[in-house]
Amino acid sequence: MIFRIRLKHGPRFRGPRGTNRRLALALSALLTPAALMALALAFWRIAADLGWSGEFAISEGIFSHWQVWTAMAAAIEGCSILLARYARGRDERSSE
What we know:
2 helices
């Protein structure tokens, strides 16, 4: 025996428009300095390996390699670009 319950569709929730886009743009603006900090750590590690600077702060583990810091910087900046595109995407399409 199968019972089917039918419910009426109520009004759709409509929050403030553009909240997600504003949040994405704010997060995008904060991710770019984080990517620059990761890149600075990568350069510090390279300079420490070449003997141009003092010892790198992290001497053991996965974060002691400059390649990891460079990859993190690229990934963070990529996320920042994608969030900025998402935040500005609808405005550019609607103006055409």
